[in-house]
Amino acid sequence: RPMESSLVVFDEECQIRIYRPEMFDEATSLQMQAQEFIQKLNNFRETISNHMHTVSAAGQQIENEKLRAIGMRNKVDGEGVARKQEQKELQQRIKEKQTELDRHVAQWVSLNKVVEQNAHLLEQLSFADANG
After folding, report:
1. What is the pLDDT of residues 4-28, one digit of tens each?
2. Contact at 8 Å (CB) between 21 and 8?
3. Which pTM was predicted?
């Protein structure tokens, strides 16, 4: 029975083939659709691959910029801390120098009084010696 609905033909390679013409046309059409689908799928995969590469490259660039920004922020924060530390050190040095200056001024005032007292004493001794 299957032979009644089949057709015996020779293909392009001179091989005998038995098939039903409508099934052959359907199979040929399905095969072409499958090849088109596979080609579209391959094109889609290539497009997705290109987009993934682009997105990955952009993501890497964003990550690099993010790390650079974090580094700059840390540098700025560190600069502020360093300036505050330097300001404290300079204020401490100013305080020490002011203390040293006050001590020297007090010594000068004291020595100046001693000089005045000695000058006054010399004057009295000179006057007493001259009247003597």
Report:
1. 556 777 777 887 777 766 777 888 8
2. no
3. 0.46
Q: CA-to-CA distance for 124 and 129, rounded, in angstroms? A: 8
Residues 126 and 27: their CA atoms lie apart, in Å, by: 144
In DSSP notation, 40-103 reads: HHHHHHHHHHHHHHHHHHHHHHHHHHHHHHHHHHHHHHHHHHHHHHHHHHHHHHHHHHHHHHHH
Q: How far apart are CA 34 and CA 41, in angstroms?
A: 10
What torsion do the CA atoms of 12, 15, 21, 24 make, to the nearest 10 degrees? -80
Q: What's the Cα-to-Cα distance from 47 to each of 35, 39, 51, 57, rounded to whole Å?
A: 18, 12, 6, 15
- Contact between 31 and 41 under an 8 Å Cβ cutoff? The reply is no
Give the separation between CA 94 and CA 100, rounded to whole angstroms. 10
Q: For residue 103, which amino acid is it?
A: R
10 sits in which H/E element: strand 7-10
Q: Could you please report the per-residue DSSP string of 79-92?
A: HHHHHHHHHHHHHH
What is the helix (H) or strand (E) element at residue 18, kind and residue range? Answer: strand 16-19
